[in-house]
Amino acid sequence: MIHKLLQKQLEKLAFKDGKFPEKNLEKFIDFVNTSYYKSDEERDFLEHTLETLSQEMKKLYKELKQKSQTALAKSEQRYRELAMRDSLTGILNRFAFQEELNRIIANSKRTNTKFALLLLDLDHFKEVNDTYGHDIGDKLLQEVTNRVLPNIRTEDVFARIGGDEFVLIFTNIKNDTLEKLVKKAIILFRKSWIIENIKLNVTTSIGVALFPDHADNEIELMKKADIAMYKSKELGRNQIIYFDKSF
What we know:
The protein is α+β, with helices and mostly antiparallel strands and 247 residues long. Helices cover 56% and strands 15% of the residues. Helix 1 (2-12) packs antiparallel against helix 2 (24-36), helix 3 packs antiparallel against helix 4 (55-84) and helix 6 packs across helix 7 (134-148). The termini are far apart.
């Protein structure tokens, strides 16, 4: 079908000897752009036809192919971003966080630097869902992101790894700055949350594991932070606990 339309359009626009009369090339480009985004079979035929015509047509073919490849690259990038982002909050998800953690570990080993991994679990979050519904719970999780992100350094990492569980990495830390950073993190959760005129006093329990002091690989570091976080819950919640071998 498209080859007949193409031939008819070429005749209509006085295409002869590999050239168009002045301004007719622009009209033909508009026609091709419209036809190009139909079926795959028609697109393949059109690309082949344009490739075998004049130099002007070959140039047009290259432009169309470049547009197609650019659109595909943008689409692939978009899907990758969606795969790496938590759909509710927009921050890194568990998969993306694991990749980032491995990258940070490799970099810290290479540069002989330290970082702190904080595992945060909201206190009594289930009660929020049970009392006010999951919609309010979801909005609370979004507000957590909105409150935390502006208050951490650009080089730090914040991710949601499931439910009401978040993880925060303070990279390239010094002993004299670590305590200040960690305290700032928990203070962010001690201020009330207002969700649709509902006041929620939801705090967080934080477990901290240090690289390389407590572990030097992803699995062990997460495990140590998790142990410390549950110790925080056990001791009354709303506090910071650093991993200790005695746990």
